From TrEMBL:
Lineage of the organism: Eukaryota, Metazoa, Chordata, Craniata, Vertebrata
Membrane spanning stretches: 63-83, 95-116, 139-163
Entry-linked PANTHER family: EPITHELIAL MEMBRANE PROTEIN 2, EPITHELIAL MEMBRANE PROTEIN-RELATED
Protein name, as recorded: Epithelial membrane protein 2
Function: Functions as a key regulator of cell membrane composition by regulating proteins surface expression. Also, plays a role in regulation of processes including cell migration, cell proliferation, cell contraction and cell adhesion.
Subunit composition and interactions: Interacts with PTK2; regulates PTK2 activation and localization. Interacts with ITGB3; regulates the levels of the heterodimer ITGA5-ITGB3 integrin surface expression. Interacts with P2RX7 (via C-terminus). Interacts with ITGB1; the interaction may be direct or indirect and ITGB1 has a heterodimer form.
GO process terms (BP): actin filament organization; actin-mediated cell contraction; apoptotic process; bleb assembly; blood vessel endothelial cell migration; cell adhesion; cell-matrix adhesion; early endosome to late endosome transport
GO cellular component: apical plasma membrane; cell surface; cytoplasm; cytoplasmic vesicle; Golgi membrane; membrane raft; nucleus; perinuclear region of cytoplasm
Subcellular location: Apical cell membrane; Cytoplasm, Perinuclear region; Golgi apparatus membrane; Membrane raft
GO MF, any single term: kinase binding
Length: 167
């Protein structure tokens, strides 16, 4: 049982780390000489421009930013609640609250990555002078980490739902 508990804790911490990296790092859309994330656009690694309300599609960017931040916060809260429930729950009870919060984190990261997938071109068209050079690129590792974090948080949420406190 101790090995299973250690695996679940490591899995949850890995999910949180993936969410942090995907939210913070500048590699959602990459090309030869630019990096784009949900916070800024960097051309030639020196000319960085913050994504702000001067863009036409700023509400889309804000939705991605908000849901990624919310997902990360919910994942951390789920871990804290898991630790509390680990010592407070009676034997045989399930970690339902932890599971619900972790599945909400999963939903948030899925919404963020889905919005970015669907509206990426619109986000880049918001400021044609800046984004003309960023149209030829591909999804970066932060975007891929967001989808991997989605899978990890989903599996983690299901594990908590199934897990019963045993000795």
């Amino acid at each position: 049982m101790l090995v299973l508990l250690a695996f679940i804790i490591i899995f949850h911490i890995t999910s949180a780390a993936l969410l942090f990296v995907a939210t913070i790092d500048n590699a959602w859309w990459v090309g030869e000489e630019f990096f784009v994330d949900v916070w800024r656009v960097c051309v030639n690694n020196t000319n960085c421009t913050e994504l702000d309300d001067t863009m036409q599609e700023f509400s889309t960017v804000q939705a991605v930013q908000a849901t990624m931040i919310l997902s990360t916060i919910l994942c951390c809260i789920a871990f804290l609640i898991f630790v509390l429930q680990l010592f407070r729950l009676k034997q045989g009870e399930r970690f339902v609250l932890t599971s619900i919060i972790q599945l909400m984190s999963c939903l948030c990261v899925m919404v963020a990555a889905s919005i970015y997938t669907d509206r990426r071109k619109d986000i880049h068209d918001g400021n044609p002078q800046l984004y003309a050079s960023t149209l030829d690129g591909s999804y970066g590792y932060s975007f891929i980490l967001a989808w991997v974090a989605f899978a990890f948080t989903f599996i983690s949420g299901l594990m908590y739902l199934i897990l019963r406190k045993r000795k």
